[in-house]
Write a sequence for this structure.
């Protein structure tokens, strides 16, 4: 490879690595503090770069927030699909009950490792403004559509009790994620680790029992 091409390739890799660091920092900062309480200076400090470099890669805080939200949702969708595939590997004929359990486990395991996606929703839900609408238009709306279709499918199979698919998907979402959000305080108060494999499995099994017709 000619020297000029090698230098160009090296610069491109450096730019990509810098963008990844900035996005990772932005995801954490926005999840911790919300959009309004976050600053590009905070994000630059977390990413160990200059603020001007953040502005070079992402012209505005709004644009950076959108890119951060897109990355965390894409990562969620990719990892959820991977969890389900791994859980059902070699079980192409797995019964519907097992597939439902695997899907629920995928949600709790991803949330255990990446709770930021929930905090994006919670912060913007409290503001109820343009960014929430952006999340709905790009991600949350589709989540609701797929979630309700999932409920209807498993109601038809006789595995989920009758009831409003919308109410049920909200209840299921809360049941799968709330324990993880309060895990630190639960541990301090009870000395019980709600993030362990055993606790997650028990959580999902209890939910399945509650949903049964």
């Amino acid at each position: 490879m000619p020297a000029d091409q090698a230098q160009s390739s090296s610069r491109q890799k450096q730019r990509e690595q810098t963008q990844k660091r900035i996005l990772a920092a932005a995801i954490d900062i926005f999840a911790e503090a919300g959009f309004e309480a976050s600053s590009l200076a905070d994000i630059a400090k977390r990413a160990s770069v200059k603020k001007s470099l953040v502005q070079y890669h992402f012209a505005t805080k709004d644009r950076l927030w959108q890119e951060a939200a897109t990355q965390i949702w894409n990562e969620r969708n990719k990892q959820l699909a991977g969890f389900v595939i791994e859980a059902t590997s070699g079980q192409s004929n797995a019964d519907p009950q097992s597939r439902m359990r695997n899907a629920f486990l995928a949600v709790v395991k991803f949330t255990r490792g990446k709770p930021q996606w929930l905090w994006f929703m919670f912060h913007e839900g409290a503001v109820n403004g343009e960014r929430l609408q952006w999340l709905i238009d790009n991600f949350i709306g589709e989540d609701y559509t797929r979630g309700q279709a999932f409920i209807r499918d498993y109601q038809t199979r006789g595995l989920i009790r009758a009831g409003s698919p919308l109410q049920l998907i909200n209840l299921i979402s809360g049941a799968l994620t709330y324990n993880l959000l309060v895990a630190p305080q639960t541990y301090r108060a009870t000395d019980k680790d709600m993030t362990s494999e055993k606790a997650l499995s028990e959580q999902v099994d209890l939910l399945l029992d509650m949903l049964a017709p």
